[in-house]
From TrEMBL, chain A:
Residues 25-92 form the RNA polymerase sigma-70 region domain. NCBIfam families: PRK12543.1, sigma70-ECF. This is RNA polymerase subunit sigma. One of its GO terms (molecular function) is sigma factor activity. Belongs to the sigma-70 factor family. ECF subfamily. Residues 126-173 form the RNA polymerase sigma factor 70 region 4 type domain. The keyword Transcription regulation applies. CDD domains: Sigma70_r4. It holds the Pfam family Sigma70_r2. It comes from Paenibacillus sambharensis. The keyword Ribosomal protein does not apply. The lineage of its organism: Bacteria, Bacillati, Bacillota, Bacilli, Bacillales. GO terms for biological process: DNA-templated transcription initiation. Keywords: Sigma factor, Transcription, Transcription regulation.
Automatic annotation (TrEMBL), chain B:
This is DUF3600 domain-containing protein. Pfam families: DUF3600. The chain crosses the membrane at residues 49-71. The lineage of its organism: Bacteria, Bacillati, Bacillota, Bacilli, Bacillales. Keywords: Membrane, Transmembrane, Transmembrane helix.
Length: 187, 167
């Protein structure tokens, strides 16, 4: 499904076409889920945010500029919601609910690859240990292949800041990765 | 492999193993339904919310005025005493005394004080003509007894209010 088609389906979904909603969801949900899951680690939080992303999609459909890639708009919404989530107080409201679940579910992350990575301290495991500010740059740069200027646009911060975070993140990864026995990378 | 390529590869690998849980599909679909209902104005929640907001908007001003003048609780409004020779200043003075009482007495005490004071003031309004002259003979025997009772009931409170004021 290309951008034009997506735009058309999204428009239909926004005005109430349920089959259009299904199409948009099927075309985008794995990407949205994975983006959020790279940035937030609590399974319940991830699901809440993914749900919010779709709510925001219908509601702010009118802010989409068809001249830019659809996924750029989508990733902008996703990252902003993740950031809102980290900042906002409405998270606390759900603490009660979550505490109840935590008592019955100690490990909420079940994806095998993630567990393995963390145990093996491989490169992905190290990415997960980066601070959020560095990690979000790495994910947008290497998972979504955005240019640093585009990342600055999505995160609404200066390009210089993105450059320095990118640099710091790679420096950190090289240092850690070298120490845990990986190949020494010289750039 | 450079670290750039390594990162791309690792992240893609990791992403392959992450799957949006199927129950989330249903949740997002329900949210979408909710969005549609809201958009069509069918949501009872939204209507209730609007009604609530309007009710609060109406209640707030009246609540603010009601609480700003304790004396209004006693007399209704300053007009009640102005018709009987009282002045706006006298009304403000009573208001000031009530505010002091509220601050100095406990909540239970103040409630009782206000109730008795209100009864006393109603009797007082009854015997006072439009020139501010009192005619105690207008009271029935029952009312006169009530008058004395209220006076002795209120005396300790007045002492407390005024006594504390001097300190």
């Amino acid at each position: 499904m290309n951008d034009n088609e997506l735009h058309m389906w999204l428009e239909k979904a926004a005005i109430g076409d349920e089959s259009a909603f299904q199409l948009v969801y099927q075309a985008t949900h794995q990407d949205v889920y994975r983006t959020v899951a790279f940035l937030i680690y609590n399974k319940q939080d991830i699901e809440d945010i993914v749900n919010e992303v779709y709510m925001r999609m219908w509601r702010s459909f009118h802010t989409y500029d068809p001249n830019r890639p659809f996924r750029f708009w989508l990733h902008g919404i996703t990252v902003r919601l993740v950031q809102d989530w980290k900042r906002k107080a409405w998270r606390r409201i759900r603490l009660f609910e979550r505490n109840r679940q935590l008592t019955s579910e100690h490990c909420d992350w079940t994806d095998k690859a993630v567990l393995q990575s963390e145990m093996q301290h491989d490169l992905f495991g190290l990415v997960r240990q980066l601070s959020y500010k560095l990690r979000v740059v790495v994910i947008l740069r290497y998972f979504h292949d955005y240019a640093l200027e585009e990342i600055a646009d999505i995160l609404q911060i200066p390009v210089g800041t993105v450059k320095s975070r990118h640099h710091l993140a790679l420096k950190e990864l090289r240092k850690q990765f070298g120490m845990t026995g990986g190949d020494a990378y010289v750039n | 492999m450079s670290i750039d390529e390594e990162l791309r590869y690792e992240l893609r690998q990791a992403a392959e193993s992450m799957h949006c849980p199927p129950h989330l599909d249903e949740r997002v679909r329900q949210s979408y339904q909710h969005y549609l209902n809201e958009k069509r104005g069918k949501s009872p929640m939204k209507k209730r919310l609007i009604a609530g907001v309007i009710a609060v908007a109406i209640l707030i001003p009246s609540a603010v005025f009601a609480s700003s003048y304790l004396a209004d609780d006693i007399f209704g409004s300053s007009e009640a005493i102005e018709q009987r020779g009282g002045s706006q200043e006298a009304y403000q003075e009573i208001e000031g005394m009530l505010q002091t009482a509220k601050a100095k007495l406990t909540e239970v005490e103040f409630k009782e004080f206000k109730e008795s004071f209100k009864q006393l003031m109603q009797l007082k309004l009854k015997i006072t003509d439009e020139n501010g002259i009192k005619h105690e003979e207008k009271l029935t025997e029952e009312e006169q007894r009530q008058w004395r009772e209220l006076g002795s009931k209120l005396a300790p409170y007045f002492e407390k209010i005024q006594g504390n004021e001097k300190q």
